[in-house]
């Protein structure tokens, strides 16, 4: 008992220095039922602070999704615009849609430095500058150059959010909340896409862009009142600020000194990051996993469907393609809500494995659908030309296959490969390399998205439409093999335990503990 009591008063740092813990031993040794009840209540109250900060930051992800979805309702209007200086051809429209991912790549290039130097919260706030500038350029566009430049700037804002948000949420969350809160990014992105689709039904392309300009201002106003992450404070020798933040996030009943000590221990092991350390397995392995997961997230084919949703459904023979696009976005939204509830119960690895096979089956079904529609040209069918590709509208009796496969695909994607890679990326990178490694992985995602969006038309010409979907099916199957071989489960583990796992190259977390 004496040994336990003594351990409650002091904690030894890696250098041997003894530091007092905020709570006294009597608080741990003399606990009655009422105190336990009050402690649980206080913890729940302060978990609300973590959720609140995550939701405020998620407005940035909402901006992200709105940017991605904007091209789907806007392109039909832009390609029929009466002003010749603004009107886009179909190939120019494809370039316009893909520029957001090119801008995101640029945002990722310096996003890692900004996240580590200025902080996670500050980076989220700074992302509003290119967002706001980009949307205003589109709103007041007088020529194609302004459209392209505005789209590029909004992409830069998306890149900064893609780097900062997952790290921010991971570092303010406790291990049992991290998976659930990590899904908020994909949920908010889906809401943003849905919002752009809904606004597009009632408004033209300039007014849709005006709606996008409002959200960054809301993000700044909300984030002013939120906290920076304790890990960033400790990495910059601001211990008092870190303890104050942990007190707000965890509550007075939590052992915040213990958590602070664990973070400091990890920082002291590797205080600074050098280029040579990126050759060490402790960084190369999680970086390899993170980059591959983000690339597979894009090569599953979701980004191409999001950006070309209205045109794809029109090509498939649906008269009101915008309303069908909204139904797909609603399906994603519901699936993402479900993902919030199951992420920390089922586990990341299990979700990725099972849903990769489901997405693979959906792409195979879509390929079969377009193959049938190509072979069975009925006399009642007309021909639609889109992006230089002529395709016969499928007969009514096989059109159900397209919508069924797409809806199931988006359910499986939203439950797994939509949110999970972002969560894992924020968990597996060492603290000292989290900004740079996250920037590299996010840039890999946006690079893949840009290439897939830009090459979409050319892939249809080279592979035919069925071949494109079968290509994505093959990518989904490869992602299954990759996760099966390389990815460990991170559910319920602290960030420090995960870092030690890769540092020591253990086969299980139990070997660390």
UniProtKB/TrEMBL annotation:
One Pfam family per UniProt: Sugar_tr
UniProt xrefs under CDD domains: MFS_GLUT6_8_Class3_like
Gene3D superfamilies per the UniProt record, alphabetical: MFS general substrate transporter like domains
One GO MF term attached to the UniProt entry: sugar transmembrane transporter activity
Keyword vocabulary terms for this entry: Cell membrane, Glycoprotein, Membrane, Transmembrane, Transmembrane helix, Transport
The organism's place on the tree of life at top rank: Eukaryota
Residues of the Major facilitator superfamily (MFS) profile domain: 53-491
Protein's membrane topology: Multi-pass membrane protein
Transmembrane segments: 50-75, 95-115, 152-170, 182-202, 208-227, 287-318, 350-372, 400-424, 436-457, 469-487
Gene Ontology CC terms: plasma membrane
Places the protein is found: Cell membrane
PROSITE patterns linked to this entry: MFS (PS50850), SUGAR_TRANSPORT_1 (PS00216), SUGAR_TRANSPORT_2 (PS00217)
Assigned protein family: Belongs to the major facilitator superfamily. Sugar transporter (TC 2.A.1.1) family.
Protein's name in the database: Solute carrier family 2, facilitated glucose transporter member 8-like
